[in-house]
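Exam prep: given the inputs below (a chain plus adenosine-5'-diphosphate), describe the expected output before reading on.
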Amino acid sequence: MSYISFYRINKLYDSGVHAIKDVTFDIEQDQFTVLVGPSGCGKSTLLRMLAGLEEITTGKILIDGKIINEVSPKDRNVSMVFQNYALYPHLTVYDNIAFGLRLKKVKTPVLDNDGNITKYINSSIPREEIDKKVKEVAEELELTDYLSRKPKQLSGGQKQRVSLARALVRDNDIFLLDEPLSNLDAKLRVEMRKTIKALHSEVKKPFIYVTHDQVEAMTLADRIVVLNKGVVQQIGSPKEIFDEPNNLYVATFFGSPQMSIIEGLLTYNNKKELGIRLENDDFLVIPKDLLGQLTDYSLIDKKVKVGLRASSFRVSEGKNKDHFSKITCDFVHKELFGNETLLKLKLGSGDLLAFVPNNIEIKDKIELFVHTSSMKIFDIETGESIFGLRRESTFKDIKFNIDADEISFEFASKEYKYPLESRCFHENLNQDSLTLKCLNEYISLEKKENSIEVEGEVSLIKNLFQRKAVYIKLKNQKEPLMLYVKKDEDIKEGSLIKVYVPLEYINFYLDDGKTPLLSKYEIHNNILEEDYDLVSKKLNITNKEFIMPLKGIKVIHKGDKIDKNEYRIFKVIVLDVENFGQKSLMYYKIKGMKGYFTALLEEEIDQVVTPVLKLAIKK
Ligand code: ADP
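Solution:
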């Protein structure tokens, strides 16, 4: 089991911002994890939920196997380092570092005359012990000469070292660092990265580091979690994220120069080879030995996007001819980059950046060879990679049956039941098949309970940095499934294997593969104890057992006449809406309430147009 688990986390702020969307990932005990993404993507929100500084709307966080949603921040054994250092300006460096230790209570055994423990009492840490710890940590972070200074007499780098020392000295289980280096200049940042990395190797505890800087993520992380708009885009080692981005977003976020993206048609050439027909009629052949990693056959004869890094070009064909395709581009511009030249080129209406040797002869038309085994292909509509690693595996045409409290479906002649519990589903079902998707991270070789068992032939094994991606061709499914296995796992291409897809991680979609069948949230209609007074006053309720109804709630529009004797009328803030075609599932709260409620409405709602609504419930 992993040390820290985020499971189906959603965060709705009262303002209606859905900051974190169905986020699931694990962190191992000694990992250096970096959460990276642009400003506003939800990094700090996730970190603050783990620290207990922000409530979790739905989902759960586990530390060491225990759910900690309701555990108070001080009992989570978490240290935090912030961008603005958060030092006490009137205290010396010594006192700033010692501050937390002086407040900390430790369990001290009380012994009887025979030396047996009779009980434990909470006591402060002895002054000598604090002194020793402070000096040790100060030494480690090269702060010994500054212990008697006040923060304003320190440079930015020194201040951040004090704040690191303060986090370290408390000997907590988890270290959270929120953009700690953003206030420092470039040179200091490089130095401090080394310091932080060295601290992590020494402490061997989970470090979770938030940054918007892709270079920082690449240099620090054992494992990167890429976020955009509250959604996890990819999780993997820096090398994996760089070499095998699973969508356009990740592909273009990392790397300098940025990966070039051009359009083309995914199709066959006259030699019946599958590849990409570019605008100028050049053809990039998908290497035959890598065909197994094509994950979406429905896009053949459709336009796709091709991603090429500047390092994917050669001036002559390599040894393995099947891995190179020739293209002809128009020269635009060149720039010297040390021992290489960066060419800016045009191919049709697309722009390409290519590294070439400095001695290449520059003409108006330049011929280059593309290393096609490193090219990426993306679905134009979704931006998902269709050739290489993919976030999810998709299973289509699944026969299913929904009744009141479960979905049952058939897969490879076996019947599975998915309990709906407190999640809500699309009610307008008139189709008879659905699409299942599962994040590839959670598909495994290990037989697990409550999993779908699938069998297929290993069509391709791809070696990654610390693990392997295995593609499996399933019977009755056109597109291969993909899972990650350990580097030393003994699997051969062409062999038959069984893999397990855990029910708790699958998502259901209509046949289009896009319309979700189940809500992202859990239904929540009980009134929390702390909200009871407020809700009962607003709704004029005297019955303590009252539960807000899921259905039968009316939205009051301008001009509607509602009989107050028949209905309870109240004003709510719309937190989020999931529209399910003529119906919608709305998440709302009454101003001042801690919890939220869910309502299934008989109309679609646009949260932007109506952030506040009047509702009516029949008495
Ligand atoms: P990041 O750390 O990636 O910059 P944040 O986690 O701070 O992003 O914010 C994620 C989203 O949530 C942003 O849209 C932000 O405006 C919003 N947000 C953050 N804190 C609050 C808050 N206290 N109330 C309302 N919205 C918030």
